[in-house]
């Protein structure tokens, strides 16, 4: 797979969140560094949906020990994690 | 009051008298019913509620329902029947298994588990669990299975399997509540809900299942206080000495591995401390945790409140109906 671009991944994750969690309302799209947990935008089931999305889209497998806020709790954290993981 | 384990101490006799008065008022004037139905699980909460109901209304105005099913532990029925016998009220046994088979509860659950363990079938046991407090992981469920040869395996649940397992097992709580309302309607009684404060606050119930009730007499009492109240009211010792379980999955499952991040004595103290603004550094030595761990528990409490808020919401309207006051 060619090297992923972090901005592209951020765009894809934001698009998934807007479609799946906000019924298309782009005005409520989270900023890249907004914490999902602190704002209540995405709960623990939502985290599982996000993990399923990135696993399927980027053909990666997220390990149990990687299910931490530093990897998953914002668009920027998620995109950074996906790029590191796909490049590993 | 300085934070210590004593903050959960109650004047049990005064509180039992107060709750009994509230139950009489609520059943007579809010619900306009003639008695109370209590579903008895053999656990501490429903036993305590039954004891309070019998004290409030007299045993002739309380009706108990025992509802074991295939995955209930072997002593569930013996324990729950000891409560109706002790407090002297009528009760009936409703075996849920054939009803749940009709809903496809077990078959739909097992189909979901086979998404993760394809060989899962007769002779296997299962439960779902959360990561503990130590690892720092987010709250994502895993399924634990015990194979017929006794070996145990664990896998994180993918979204579809997780949602289907929860949806299928929720048939249990909702079927129980349907039967409770059958008996309540038949007798013109109201239905009790039996959550303690931890469960009520943290959304540990099924909407339309154990979350559905006309009155929840112990929702304001911490679990530690429920144990004390149960002992005070004479609930059988076997029940008071038993560790809390969910009694929902076929493998033995503590409530702390299924939902709460700590055993209840610590969870009670953490919730009290958070509710009263006790800083983590001050709460930590009393609870027996580090300040960092207490901070994590506080965050987990907020997260669960936010996640489960919808469970307690009434149906939302899209326009006002001011004539109806609920």
Account of the protein in words:
The complex is a heterodimer of chains A (88) and B (326). In chain A, helix 1 (6-21) crosses helix 3 and helix 1 packs across helix 5 (75-87). Chain A is mostly helical and 88 residues long. Chain A has one domain: Non-ribosomal Peptide Synthetase Peptidyl Carrier Protein, Chain A (Orthogonal Bundle), CATH 1.10.1200.10. Chain A contains 5 helices and no strands. Chain B is α/β, with parallel strands linked by helices. In chain B, strand 5 and strand 6 (152-156) form a beta hairpin. Chain A binds chain B through residues 37, 40, 43-45, 47-49, 51-52, 64-65, 67-69, 72, and chain B through 131, 135-140, 142, 156-159, 162-163, 299, 303, 306-307.
Strand-helix topology:
The complex is a heterodimer of chains A (88) and B (326).
Chain A: H1 6-21, H2 36-39, H3 44-58, H4 69-72, H5 75-87
Helix pairs in contact in A: 1-3, 1-5
Chain B: H1 12-31, E1 36-40, H2 44-57, E2 62-66, H3 76-87, E3 90-93, H4 97-103, H5 105-113, E4 125-129, E5 142-146, E6 152-156, H6 159-187, E7 190-191, H7 197-202, H8 223-233, H9 237-240, H10 255-258, H11 264-275, H12 280-287, H13 291-312
Parallel strand pairs in B: 1-2, 1-7, 2-3
Antiparallel strand pairs in B: 4-5, 5-6
Helix pairs in contact in B: 1-2, 2-3, 2-8, 5-6, 11-12, 11-13, 12-13
State the main characteristics.
heterodimer; A: 88 residues; mainly alpha; Non-ribosomal Peptide Synthetase Peptidyl Carrier Protein, Chain A; 5 helices; 59% helix; 0% strand; globular; B: 326 residues; alpha/beta; Rossmann fold; 2 domains; four-stranded parallel beta sheet; three-stranded antiparallel beta sheet; 13 helices; 10% strand
């Amino acid at each position: 797979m060619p090297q992923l671009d972090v901005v592209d991944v951020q765009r894809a994750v934001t698009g998934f969140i807007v479609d799946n969690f906000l019924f298309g309302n782009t005005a409520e799209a989270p900023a890249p560094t907004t914490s999902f947990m602190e704002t209540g935008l995405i709960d623990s089931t939502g985290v599982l949906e996000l993990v399923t999305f990135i696993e399927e889209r980027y053909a990666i497998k997220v390990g149990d020990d990687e299910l931490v806020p530093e990897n998953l709790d914002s668009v920027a954290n998620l995109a950074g994690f996906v790029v590191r993981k796909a490049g590993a | 009051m300085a934070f210590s384990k004593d903050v959960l101490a109650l004047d049990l006799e005064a509180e039992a008298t107060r709750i009994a008065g509230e139950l009489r008022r609520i059943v007579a004037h809010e619900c306009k019913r003639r008695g109370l139905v209590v579903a008895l699980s053999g656990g501490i909460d429903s036993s305590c509620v039954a004891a309070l109901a019998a004290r409030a209304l007299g045993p002739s105005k309380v009706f108990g329902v025992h509802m074991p099913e295939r995955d209930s532990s072997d002593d569930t029925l013996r324990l729950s029947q000891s409560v109706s016998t002790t407090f002297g009220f009528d009760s009936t046994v409703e075996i849920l298994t054939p009803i749940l088979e009709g809903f496809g509860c077990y078959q739909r659950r097992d189909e979901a588990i086979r998404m993760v363990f394809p060989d899962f079938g007769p002779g296997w046991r299962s439960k779902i669990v959360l990561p503990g407090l130590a690892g720092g992981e987010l709250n994502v469920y895993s399924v634990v299975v015990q194979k017929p040869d006794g070996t145990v395996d664990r896998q994180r649940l993918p979204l579809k399997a997780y949602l289907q397992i929860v949806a299928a097992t929720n048939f249990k709580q909702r079927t129980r509540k349907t039967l409770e309302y059958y008996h309540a309607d038949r007798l013109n009684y109201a239905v009790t809900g039996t959550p303690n404060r931890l469960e009520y606050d943290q959304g540990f119930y099924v909407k339309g299942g154990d979350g559905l009730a006309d009155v929840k007499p112990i929702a304001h009492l911490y679990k530690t206080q429920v144990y004390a109240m149960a002992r005070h009211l004479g609930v059988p010792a076997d029940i008071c000495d038993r560790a809390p379980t969910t009694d929902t999955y076929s493998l033995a499952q503590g409530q702390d591995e299924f939902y709460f991040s700590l055993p209840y004595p610590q969870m009670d103290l953490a919730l009290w401390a958070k509710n009263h603004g006790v800083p983590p550094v001050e709460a930590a030595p009393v609870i027996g945790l580090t300040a960092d761990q207490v901070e994590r528990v506080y965050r987990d409490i907020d997260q669960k409140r936010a996640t489960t808020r919808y469970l307690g919401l009434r149906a939302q309207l899209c326009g006002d109906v001011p004539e109806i006051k609920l």
